[in-house]
Design goal:
alpha/beta, globular, single chain, 385 residues
Length: 385
């Protein structure tokens, strides 16, 4: 497979993100904005490679953040709207949150009441005004994996919609819901029907609504027309600014994790030990779980030679999966894992002291690569005491 750039000279392991593919996704998102008037934010929890923030800022309206550090990164590197949502804010960090945020979403009514005076004081004394909202829980989602279902039973996320009748909306400007995970626009359409049924009486008290993340807008089979029609239909019924905050959709199918074979062993089947780790470098492989695609690799038995691909840490479960290849693997062979831009760099670890992969920015249009960041012992040492 021709990636459009030369990777053979790159040291492994390395994440490689193709900025031209990022821009392809950004153009899709901009088309949704242009057709609907909605605003789209980059959710940093999914993708925070700030070396492409200048490109993203040409197409998007800002960033959605979930911590003070993400908010600081958005302020420093993105330079547009910074939206902050945390499950619970600390009194120590909240002043700095206020200083960096344009929107703050509270997970509970009690948190809003706790910090309401701080917001009012800040807005009174600063030219930048902070708009605040509540996250709601509509009690409806179609997420199949419980671990990733934000609206499951006894969820810690959001104000249950039936409790909104107890809310005094004075000082509040918006509502936020997040009920999706890697899903299509038909799911949003059904969720929105539930939200409208329960929350319409409160819409005349607010100015904006955030549809959250989980929208797989740049996936090849995503129904963009239905998304556009759904947003436009909602806006025709309610005079509210609509926000979306996908993270994965910006970086979907734009990046790779390139690794090398370090050793070949046999224990009931052939085993290839790689210089990457599932637990340290691509944790969603174990957490979701899912099986990443490899260029030239297929399901076990589909090709002539099948291998179990193992990671570098001492965790027994540090196994990427079983793959088959047309040729026998040899020491030093490079394997390329697909779709590794999102939820990889933001979640990786130095477990076992394993080094983090280099971060490389590529251009398939210009056939160029640039190593943006390399990691070493100091990165491991400095995060410990």
């Amino acid at each position: 497979m021709n990636l459009g750039f030369d990777y053979e000279h790159l040291a492994t392991p390395c994440y490689v993100v193709d900025k031209d593919l990022i821009e392809r996704n950004l153009r899709v998102l901009k088309s949704v904005k242009d057709q609907t008037g909605c605003k789209i934010l980059l959710a940093l929890k999914g993708f925070a490679m700030h070396s492409v923030f200048d490109l993203c800022a040409q197409y998007l309206d800002g960033v959605a953040t979930s911590s003070l550090n993400e908010a600081l990164l958005g302020t420093e590197k993105f330079g547009k709207e910074v939206h902050v949502y945390e499950v619970a804010y600390s009194a120590q960090e909240f002043p700095e949150i206020l200083a960096n945020a344009h929107h703050i979403v509270f997970n509970s009514y009690s948190q809003w009441l706790r910090f309401k005076k701080d917001v009012e004081t800040y807005n009174k004394n600063n030219s930048k005004k902070v708009s605040c909202g509540l996250r709601i829980n509509p009690h409806y989602s179609e997420v199949k994996v419980d671990k990733y279902n934000p609206c499951g039973p006894n969820s810690r996320f959001g104000v249950p919609v039936e409790q909104l009748k107890e809310v005094n909306f004075e000082g509040l400007s918006g509502l936020h819901f997040h009920a999706m995970c890697e899903q299509n626009s038909d799911v949003l359409q059904r969720i929105l029907a539930v939200v409208e049924k329960t929350c319409t009486p409160y819409f005349d008290r607010i100015k904006w609504i955030n549809f959250g993340g989980g929208h797989h807008i740049t996936r090849p089979d995503y129904d963009i027309k239905l998304l556009v029609d759904t947003i436009n239909g909602f806006r025709s019924r309610h005079d509210l600014q609509v926000y979306l905050e996908p993270g994965e959709a910006i970086a979907l199918n734009t990046g790779y994790l390139i690794s090398s074979v370090l050793d070949l062993t046999h224990n009931g089947m052939d085993i290839a030990l790689m210089d990457v780790s599932a637990t340290a470098h691509m944790p969603d492989v174990l957490e979701m779980p899912y099986r990443p695609e490899i260029i030239g690799g297929k399901e076990p038995g589909k090709n002539k030679f099948t291998y179990k691909l193992g990671g570098t840490t001492c965790l027994s479960g540090d196994v990427i999966g079983d793959y088959s290849f047309n040729e026998r693997l040899e020491l030093g062979d490079k394997l390329i894992f697909m779709d590794m831009a999102h939820y990889s760099m933001v979640k990786n670890t130095t477990f076992n002291g394993v080094n983090l992969p280099d971060i490389v920015l590529a251009s398939s249009r210009k056939n160029t690569t640039e190593v943006i960041r390399s990691f070493g012992y100091e990165d491991y040492r400095n995060r410990l005491s």
